[in-house]
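Entry 14: structure prediction run for Mitochondrial transcription termination factor 1. Input pasted below.
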Amino acid sequence: MAPQNLLYLRSNFLCGSRCWMFQNSADILFKSVSCRLFGVKCGNEHSENELLKNLLVMGVDVDMAKKRQPGVFNRTGVNEQDLKMFLLSKGASKEVIASIISRYPRAITRTPENLSKRWDLWRRIMASDLEIVNILERSPESFFRSNNNLNLENNIKFLYSVGLTRKCLCRLLTNAPRTFSNSLHLNKQMVEFLQEVCLSLGHSDPIDFVRKIIFKNPFILIQSTKRIKANIKFLQSTFNLNNEELLVLICGPGAEILDLSNDHAKRNYTNIKEKLFSLGCTEEEVRKFVLSYPDVIFLGEKKFNDKIDCLIEEQISILQIIETPRILDSSISTLKSRIKELVNAGYNLSTSNITLLSWSQKRYKAKLEKLNIG
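Run finished. Output tokens:
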């Protein structure tokens, strides 16, 4: 019996051991598979907590950052401390750094080497580190959106090569930094298109034309050639412009209209015509009004109509409005409050100059003070 009992115990032990080994092997296998399938949670849980802690200490709005770019928090190799030290060395405050990361958390994925190289490239255009910090504070995406420094370098070289000055590139980087994230091919395509437009309109200096139009409208390089072509055609046909008149318009006050959706431009212009016709204006008066102030085409139907109605209700004639269209730059609330103040000061808007309705606040207040003293 003893040998049989020993044999029985041995078989039970071996069976139990095999079962235990199988169970634990399965657990280990499942755990490793689940880690691969579901990302970095298993091995990276501590580092993610550490990242959140660091960001909170830095004053970052973590909730905002997670809403904007949640994927950043699942990545390995983030460099929030390196980014902080780099930006501090360039003159950024802790508050500005926190704001940058809150609004564009992908910034923490850039390496110190990448940051340093990109900063040096921007300094080929900007005069100081502080100027770059100010752009980052306003638009962090402009600097951190791309890490392709070679593309940035090639774009800078190309834009210099087509005659753009440092001042013009500075304006581009300040107002339309996405230009430098464009592929070199896209920027070349737009510049070549603008040069073709210049020659087709009889201008003999395409470099000068491109420089003028980009300086007037820094956003033009991030538009499509199709949109620009449609808007040029719209301006020429709608206002019956010859080539020379069209050149003056698109190199000057009408340059920004080239950005506008063509359907939007047509719809707004149709509304302007209908509104002014209803107030007794002639076709020529409408034409003169829009060409003297092309920005009016940016005003949507309701906004334009409401501003005109507001001025008419205050006894300002449509002829006065046509002769001083820049008063439409002011908001309706500003127009109403200024009209009230001027009337109380004894200023007759029906017979006097109304340009002060669009003056800067400082200039307007000085004029109002003189009127009240008088």
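Notes: Residues 72 and 369 are 55 Å apart (CA to CA). Will compare against the previous run tomorrow.
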